Amino acid sequence: MSTRVNLLQTQPEALKAMMGLEKYIASTALDPIHKELIKIRASQINGCAYCIDMHTKDAKKLGLTEQRIYLLNAWKEVKNLYTEEEKAILAMTEEITLIQNHLSDATYNKAIQLFDENYVSEIMMMIITINAWNRIAISTEMQPV
Q: How many folded domains does the chain comprise?
């Protein structure tokens, strides 16, 4: 397997900017479990093995059960494993990640009923950030360790 460009070496300022987003995300009120659910679900949709590996390990450290991790890609089919808040976050994650379908009014309105505008904005920024990381990891062929 050939190695691809190392963005940290070739584009350090761009990666510094991405780390600025991470610093912002770390400063938000987002629940750590919510963050990991977003990161895992977006990474599943995008097929980012590196990020799925990293964030499932991080989620387990936070106490997210293996069952909730394993069933995340089928969250809509599971009746009582995810809270209403988590379901709203997962719906937002899917619709923003698969942006050609847009973030629907129904999903947005459900989120606004459950969270304040600031929290919804933080959720959006988390989704946007993990999607950017997924694209970096996939295009540079980063591998799980």
A: 1
